[in-house]
Amino acid sequence: MRRLKRCLEGLTYALLDVLALIGVRASSRRFDLVIVYPGLLGDYVMWLPYARALIQHRQHIRPDERIALLLDAPLLGWARRHFPGVDLIAIERRAMRLDLSYRARTLRSLRRLGVKDVVYAAQPRDFLIGDAIVRALAAPTAVGHAAVFADRTGFDRALSRRWYSHLIPPPSGEHHIDYHRALLAALAVPAQAVQPVTDFAAHHPPPASWPYFILAPGASRRERCWPEQRYTEVAQALRRLRPHWHCVLIGAAHERALCDRIARAMGEGVVNMAGRTSIDELAVWIAHARLVLGNDSSAGHIAALCGTPSLIVLGGGHYARCYPYPAQAAAVVQAPTSVHTHMPCFGCDWYCRYPLKKGRPYPCIEAVTVSQVLAALPALLAQADARAGSPTAAL
Length: 395
Hints:
By secondary structure, this protein is α/β, with parallel strands linked by helices. Helices cover 41% and strands 14% of the residues.
């Protein structure tokens, strides 16, 4: 049933895209290279050091080349600071799936650009967004990863392969970083060109005058959240170990009620910032924190770039793709620490084989105990104390 749904979805969108692009022709060439990366916040953060290496390498060997970067619209503010001198193209990911009028207008405007080379840097390839964008750009040279989502059908795979001149085989590792390295190697970018992003939250003063740790109890889906009672217990234990630290709760606006409940349970010395920060402000809070605790979300990736020690409660749906980081994660200042309880079904893409209880997380996440998390804290506190001795050195 899942594959049938994907097949019908792929056929429908492919037909609609054909109709949308009828009669649309490219103008005279506007860009020499368009790099397509319509990923979410955490994906962008992991990709940033590799994107910089790619663009700087191209600018070095082809200084007259005009480069554009296509991103999800909410990330444009960061991209303007991280990629000066690079043209930016914004798309709305959600609208590309749900608003057919917006999708048609966007694909038509992309077809008119006139592009020589396209690099689709995200993985696995997304047939409905990323592949459709590559198709619309219609560049003579198009490079992307061979990997696609496991539930895509043979029709999707065969059709989308025709839109690329070169597909990069999967690397030996599963992590996004392994794929980013493989892409740069295929594009002849030297490995030493990848460096940690040391200006990620630079020039921003601390948002508070007191020391604090961050608790990020939310995730993209409720079932991927470690129980709030356990976060409360860990946060209270941490306050006992570091009584002068405040607790700052962060999250999206819809997670504010969750953070309110944890704040009430903890009592004094707690600040709930959920839904009250911009992306830039979120990065500054994380950059100046002593420690970050959270689920599999963007907070840990931001902490890794900023050098903030972090602990991630991890399930098995996407195990080894985002967390844990590879042993040789040279492009981050401080790799996150992951705590998990291994199960034989790890790598299930969150299609759980076990019955799910309403209001409860996936079994692999619920299997992580408070004791496991508390056991990981001493090493992280030692890192936090050492970092406090040379504050903002990695910011």
